[in-house]
Design goal:
about 325 residues; alpha/beta; Rossmann fold; UDP-galactose 4-epimerase, domain 1; 2 domains; seven-stranded parallel β-sheet; three-stranded mixed β-sheet; about 15% strand; NmrA/Isoflavone_reductase-like
């Protein structure tokens, strides 16, 4: 347990899952970095974040780089994993400041950036204007003393398990709503996509800590499939046909897509749901979630076997059919 890992955004969706899996691997010490010690939204009184037992949580101010350096050194952190959601310039600035602090802290040697979805490249800027946030962070790390990697997971198959699957990811219904037996499939459903269960992705991030050498990109091992095939398997597991809407690529390009039913209690607003859908459908048609096959992280761990879409669906929905 000589290595101490700090997870920034540890009480968030992806962060909590990664902390859980680092704990489960039981090979490294982990602390959580969080903006606040208050885990309840004062305006709604709802639990929007939750702490994990046995994990020390450290309150930090991402606008104060010297204080961040002090916290990292005080806890003898050697690796920082950033899971702050890139939802705006302020979030990007938090990661940038954390990188600067990690580079200054004499204990920190490695940094994992907050990406986790698709492989962000400049040519995706027409779909995702926030691409610059990821590129800026990567360029800063290239010119730092830190060893770093950019994790690329693909698309979380958790959306096909909402609201029943074990998941910290915000329950959302995009493309395939198994609960309501409905689907909205962009194009003809044959574009390639890598789907992975969030806990399998988090396990790979935890295992990444065991490696001495890191590549610039760390591609996760999910199932390489299509939404058309995933829909077929969902129908087979449930034993019935879904009500399917096939979306024309030109409509997707124009943002003219229907909004699927929102999962009760998810907190997602209709305009947010629509924005998520447009982004996801456009990126799917561009095969942005189709990860390179060569050099995947899981190949370095022969005992690791990610769940397939079929296995995930049978685990979540098999008992309910």
């Amino acid at each position: 347990m000589g290595l101490t890992v700090a997870v920034a955004g540890a009480t968030g969706r992806v962060g909590r899952t990664i902390v859980e899996q680092i704990q489960d691997e039981n090979k490294f010490s982990v602390i959580g970095l969080t903006r606040s010690d208050a885990l309840i939204d004062s305006s709604t009184k709802e639990h929007v974040e939750s702490a994990l037992s046995g994990v020390p949580y450290v309150q930090v101010d991402y606008d104060d780089i010297p204080a961040l350096v002090q916290k990292l050194e005080e806890h003898e952190v050697q690796t920082v994993i950033c899971t702050i959601g890139m939802l705006g310039d302020d979030c990007s600035e938090s990661q940038i400041n954390l990188i600067k602090a990690a580079d200054q802290a004499h204990t920190v040697q490695r940094f994992v950036t907050s990406e986790f979805g698709y492989m962000t490249r400049a040519e995706r800027k027409d779909i995702d204007p926030g691409v610059d946030w990821f590129i800026t962070a990567a360029n800063l790390l290239k010119n730092s003393s830190l060893k770093y990697t950019r994790p690329v997971c693909g698309a979380f198959m958790d959306f096909m398990g909402a609201p029943s699957a074990r998941s910290n990811i915000t329950p959302n219904t995009i493309a395939i709503d198994v609960y309501n037996r409905e689907a909205c499939i962009p194009g003809d459903g044959t574009a390639r996509i890598t789907l992975i269960y969030s806990y399998d992705a988090a396990t790979l991030i935890a295992k990444l800590l065991e490696l001495d050498e890191w590549s610039e990109f760390s591609f996760c091992n999910g199932e390489d499939t299509t939404l058309g095939q995933a829909l077929k398997e969902a129908e087979e597991v449930c034993g019935e046909k879904f009500n399917v809407t096939w979306l024309k690529p030109e409509d997707v390009a124009n943002g003219d897509v229907p909004t699927m039913k929102i999962v009760e209690g998810s907190g997602i607003q209709p305009e947010e749901q629509h924005a998520y859908a447009v982004f996801g459908y456009q990126l799917y048609l561009a095969e942005g979630f189709n990860l390179p096959v060569e050099g995947r992280l899981g190949d370095k761990f022969p005992g690791f076997k990610p769940r397939t879409v079929r296995e995930f669906l049978e685990t979540v929905w098999g008992p309910h059919v």
